[in-house]
Design goal:
alpha/beta
């Protein structure tokens, strides 16, 4: 009996001690920040004004040297967005082509013959590289929900060397993998395209088809392939450090700015040199087109010293 009472008292004592320790530990703040691995994106910024101090004769040649080929990945269900993109920003590419999962009679496209987005992306890159490698030095890929200001893209690329192995856009992190989100659009240099298309089809390095135990998005699979090819992902920013490739629409950014920066809604929203916005409807595509290319404020004159002229035969408006 005495032994049982002794064991009971020991149990109560140990339990009480444990509770006291847990209470004390609950008030101790542990600084996990020092343990967490510090990570910063690789950043690429837009050129400063020095790049624009060019002789008059140099500017047209510089303008002509930046040729952008646009790849838009679509599916039949996207036909209204597809038509909106074709009638709006795609006209400002030096050449734009739509790559569809199947043949669609109402709109012209290159039939990829698959619903797998990664396989569509890979086949589109191969098609573009094989057919146009000698004509374009930058390749821009987007979804039909993306609106792009191609002139701002060309301006951003002024000081970038297309013979270097990198690709850019809005970078994100997944574990140890850094990748450019397809939502904001993806830009590959011609060197990156060359390395991607020269990769041997080795499943563990760059699978030809998106066959995984778990679903992996096409932009992450592209990042895996490019990583093995020695191509690095770069986050694109303006001179103030604001992202220029955006994975959300202007409307969402404005809404967020009204909450976070109520006194600077417009200034706190987005970069003045934004290249892309994503998540747009058909109507929003036309609104963006009007606002970017047609609306002018009387008395405000913008004298850009460099003009990117459309390609010969283009219906660029």
């Amino acid at each position: 009996m005495l032994s049982e009472s002794s064991l009971f008292l020991k149990g109560v004592l140990l339990g009480s001690t444990f509770c006291v320790l847990m209470t004390m530990l609950g008030h101790i703040r542990v600084d996990y920040g020092k343990r967490r691995r510090h990570y910063e994106h690789r950043h690429l910024q837009a050129p400063n004004e020095d790049i624009l101090k060019l002789a008059g004769g140099e500017r047209p040649e510089l303008s002509k040297s930046f040729r952008v080929y646009c790849i838009i990945l679509v599916k039949p269900k996207d036909v209204r967005l597809w038509a909106a993109v074709k009638e709006t920003w795609a006209k400002h590419c030096d050449k734009a082509e739509f790559f569809s999962s199947e043949n669609v009679k109402v709109l012209e496209s290159v039939n990829m013959g698959t619903n797998d987005m990664w396989l569509m992306m890979r086949k589109a890159y191969k098609y573009a590289f094989d057919k146009y490698r000698g004509q374009y030095n930058w390749f821009f890929l987007a979804r039909p929900t993306t609106f792009a200001v191609i002139e701002n893209l060309k301006y951003f690329l002024l000081k970038k060397n297309s013979s270097q192995p990198f690709y850019l856009g809005h970078t994100e992190k997944s574990g140890d993998l850094e990748y450019v989100s397809v939502g904001g659009g993806i830009v590959l240099s011609i060197e990156s395209m060359k390395r991607l298309n020269n990769l041997p089809s080795i499943p563990e390095k760059c699978p030809e088809k998106g066959r995984m135990v778990w679903e992996v998005s096409e932009d992450k699979q592209l990042a895996v392939c490019l990583k093995y090819a020695g191509v690095v992902a770069e986050n694109a920013e303006d001179s103030k450090g604001k992202d220029v490739f955006n994975t959300k629409s202007v409307g969402i950014f404005i809404k967020e700015a009204m909450t976070n920066h109520p006194n600077q809604v417009v200034e706190g929203c987005c970069s003045d040199m934004a290249i892309t916005f994503n998540g747009l409807t058909c109507n929003q595509m036309y609104v963006m087109m009007y606002g970017v290319y047609h609306l002018r404020a009387f008395g405000h004159v913008f004298n850009d010293v460099l003009v990117f002229l459309p390609a010969n035969g283009s219906d660029n408006d």
